[in-house]
Write a sequence for this structure.
């Protein structure tokens, strides 16, 4: 009670009421009589229900039957969490589990599917990847009839430390077997961790088969492929070259009969056209080189406790068991995180709903009293 | 603690106040303290609930349900939030209002057939006047009178039961008693 906010007369009246209710000697007579009258007319509980209630109180209100509230209050939230965990488990396992710690950019592929993932991508005008080795010999072999497509790939292999050398040797042999060559390589060793980088050039028509064979050498961490359609650029360059050659032939024919100043003028023009022809021939050769040979940027990484596991056919070792156990823990942690991600918003919504339901219930109760 | 005397004429409400379990403000309710609470509050609780629901037989069920609900929630009682008696009356209020919602009808106390009239001794006419004046009050005012005069709750406890501030409870109580007295005088 805050008497400082009550009217003094009201506060005094309340004190008088309290005194009358308490039966204080100096209480207001009228209020005391009113209090006594009210107590006298107060309804009394009949004896039988009072005795029955007293028995129940003494017995501790034994439960008559299984209360459904127990189910709703205890098991239902547990069922919701279990359902969220199940959904999380499905999500994690369907996604292939936690990503490898050192995987490259997109296009992660398991070893068994490496050969399938090496299938040729659609030869559309997609993004062009990087490295094309300069100075490659131009052997004009079109990748597809009527089209000029530059193809490239980026492959990451993971190998155990004891198989690193075998894998790198296999890269070179596989490339040569497919009619290609190693345009560049770099090998680094730091203790038991080794890394080898290759720039491979293989005929474009042999790219898919080369990637499939390279993928069998070790565990594939990632494969990316890119294509760029150069048909338009090639055909345009070829057309300009034809025109330039035609113009050159015409100038040569005209020069054969020209004399004096006209011959000088024709010789000057012939010089310009010839230069243009040479430049267009170089451009066409370069385009042919880009489309005839594909570039593979390949990296081999090896470590002592490599997570890449064994290549097909290797034995299962305690190290493999440790890796599998750790993966299981990672999956469990992922499931827990996802389950919480589902459960926490649901719990928040449930809490908000409960608050709203409580407020609505209070309003309805007060309304029931007003209607009584 | 002594058993509270059965309700009869002239029993001062101060008896109920003095018999509140001493453990209320010091610790959570024990089983023994709950039984003591029952003995000291059952009659007052019944009188209060009858005032709300205006049906004796329904009030019996509400009172029983209130005590059972309080027993189930013994662990949730927090003495820092108020007395055990106020806590119990709050539970009973909710149960009574839920009963009103379910019934959606009103049975006046005076019209209930066969309701036993208490022996009132001094002035039956005056007490009948008081009863009629109480019945004629608005439900909320009637409730306030019951909480103060039947249950013997102080203003802070009344405020806790109703979920309002003590100042607001005092103002409403003053208004209710004033109207009750006016109604008695008018009769």
């Amino acid at each position: 009670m805050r008497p400082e906010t009550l009217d003094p007369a009201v506060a005094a009246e309340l004190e008088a009421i309290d005194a009358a209710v308490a039966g204080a000697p100096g209480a207001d007579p009228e209020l005391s009589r009113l209090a006594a009258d009210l107590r006298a007319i107060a309804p009394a509980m009949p004896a039988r229900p009072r005795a029955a209630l007293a028995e129940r109180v003494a017995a501790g209100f034994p439960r008559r039957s299984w209360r459904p509230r127990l189910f709703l209050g205890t098991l239902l939230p547990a069922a919701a969490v279990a359902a969220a965990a199940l959904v999380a488990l499905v999500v994690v396992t369907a996604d292939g589990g936690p990503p490898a710690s050192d995987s490259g950019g997109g296009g992660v592929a398991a070893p068994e599917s490496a050969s399938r993932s090496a299938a040729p991508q659609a030869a559309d005008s997609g993004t062009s990847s990087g490295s094309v080795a300069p100075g490659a010999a131009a052997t004009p072999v079109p990748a597809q009839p009527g089209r000029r497509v530059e193809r490239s790939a980026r492959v990451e292999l993971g190998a155990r430390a004891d198989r690193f050398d075998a894998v790198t040797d296999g890269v070179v042999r596989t490339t040569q077997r497919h009619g290609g060559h190693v345009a560049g390589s770099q090998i680094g060793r730091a203790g038991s961790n080794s890394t080898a980088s290759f720039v491979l050039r293989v005929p474009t028509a042999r790219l898919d088969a080369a990637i499939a064979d390279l993928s069998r050498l070790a565990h594939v961490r990632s494969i990316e492929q890119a294509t760029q359609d150069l048909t338009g650029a090639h055909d345009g360059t070829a057309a300009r070259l034809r025109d330039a050659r035609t113009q050159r032939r015409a100038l040569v024919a005209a020069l054969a009969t020209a004399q004096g100043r006209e011959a000088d003028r024709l010789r000057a023009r012939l010089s310009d056209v010839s230069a243009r022809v040479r430049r267009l021939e170089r451009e066409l050769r370069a385009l042919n080189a880009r489309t005839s040979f594909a570039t593979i940027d390949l990296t081999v990484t090896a470590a002592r406790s490599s997570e890449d596991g064994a290549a097909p056919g290797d034995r299962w070792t305690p190290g493999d068991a440790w890796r599998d156990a750790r993966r299981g823990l990672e999956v469990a942690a992922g499931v827990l995180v996802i389950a919480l991600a589902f459960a926490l918003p649901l719990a928040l919504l449930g809490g908000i709903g409960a608050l709203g339901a409580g407020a609505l219930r209070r309003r309805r109760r007060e309304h029931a009293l007003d209607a009584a | 603690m002594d058993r509270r005397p059965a309700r009869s004429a002239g029993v001062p409400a101060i008896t109920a106040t003095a018999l509140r379990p001493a453990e209320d403000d010091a610790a959570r309710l024990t089983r023994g303290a709950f039984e003591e609470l029952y003995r000291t509050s059952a009659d007052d609780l019944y009188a209060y609930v009858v005032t709300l629901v205006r049906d004796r037989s329904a009030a019996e069920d509400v009172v029983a349900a209130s005590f059972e609900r309080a027993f189930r929630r013994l662990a949730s009682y927090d003495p820092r939030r108020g007395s055990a008696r106020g806590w119990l009356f709050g539970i009973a209020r909710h149960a009574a209002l839920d009963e009103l919602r379910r019934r959606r009808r009103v049975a006046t106390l005076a019209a209930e057939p066969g309701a036993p009239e208490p022996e009132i001794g001094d002035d039956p006419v005056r007490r009948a006047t008081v009863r009629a004046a109480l019945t004629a009050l608005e439900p909320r005012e009637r409730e306030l009178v019951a909480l103060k005069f039947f249950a013997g709750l102080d203003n802070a406890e009344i405020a806790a039961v109703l979920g309002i501030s003590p100042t607001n409870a005092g103002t409403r109580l003053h208004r209710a008693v004033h109207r009750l007295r006016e109604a008695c005088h008018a009769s």
Notes: The two ends of chain B are 42 Å apart (CA to CA). The mean pLDDT of chain B is 80. Helices of chain B lie at 13-18, 31-53, 56-72, 84-103, 124-136, 139-150, 155-162, 166-186. Residues 53 and 100 of chain B are 6 Å apart (CA to CA).
